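<instruction>
Derive structure tokens from the sequence
<entry> Chain with its tokenised backbone below:
===
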Amino acid sequence: MSTDTRMHREAAQAPEAVRRQIELNAGSLQQLGAVLRERAPRAVVTCARGSSDHAATFARYLIETHAGLLTASASPSLSSVYETSTDLRDAVFLAISQSGRSPDLLAATERARDSGAFVIALCNTPGSPLSQLAHHAIDLHAGAETSVAATKSYIASLSAIVQLAASWTRNDDLSQALHAAPAQLEKSWTLDWSAALAVLRPAVNLFVVGRGYGLGLAQEAALKFKETCGLHAEAFSSAEVQHGPMALVRRGFPVLAFSQNDETRGGIETLARDFLDRDATVLLAGAQDRGAVQLPVVAAHPVIEPMLMIQSFYRLAAALAVARGFDPDVPPHLRKVTETV
């Protein structure tokens, strides 16, 4: 698969970024975990755009399953356009951004702080306006990312969220799983997903499916198909896709399904069989079905597996973009920093 793109080179740096982040953030996140236990927040509100919002989807599942707190996504336009405020006393406001400069995210974060929230920022730009607004800023330590498509910064966002949750809940199992992740990311980068190229090179539309911890993974993959490969892809929960979207499935319709090894796997495998029975072409990562195109994965803790699968996917996406005649580093009509209002 093609390697001569910045997207490919930067995605390959994710293992070292995660290794560096775990080491450099350990002390500050231990302190933050103690603060959160003392504050005992009643809820968590996430705020992000694009790939960072897909990381926020992952955060929602992780925080609700491990901290037992209601976690919801904020709409930045409520602050930047409608100029309204929400009572966020005793809540954590988790803002995630690569640049930390988008006006709508800054407006939402400032209003959240003024409304009583304890603000945590995950950002890849130290000293950014977002980091300065936060009560506690977590540096992603992903390093410079010049390709428009986020790769290593997305994976670094996931690992920072895991480290935050592990420190907050004092979960040694999560912490140990995260420490194994850099080596597992390195192995995931070497896996051969080229079997998907023949299916996706001529494709016009496809579904990308995940559930639970893997839903954000499906959202991120669908975005990368659109922005780097010129391929219309829609992400769905494996539960939601069985409703209206299933009516679109015809012979040869491509479906990419991701499955981490947890309680959701059985449902993903049942859904894959349903798609195959409708003559769809199913690409399957994590789950098993002899009728599907199997994409190899590295087995790990279920919380870690989504970041391993997206690492393998990024290598595929960079190659697919080139195969379809696109430059993944400079997608049409896009910029690295999108300053929405």
User: Anything to note?
Assistant: DSSP finds twelve helices and ten strands in the chain. The mean pLDDT is 93. The longest strand covers residues 91-97.
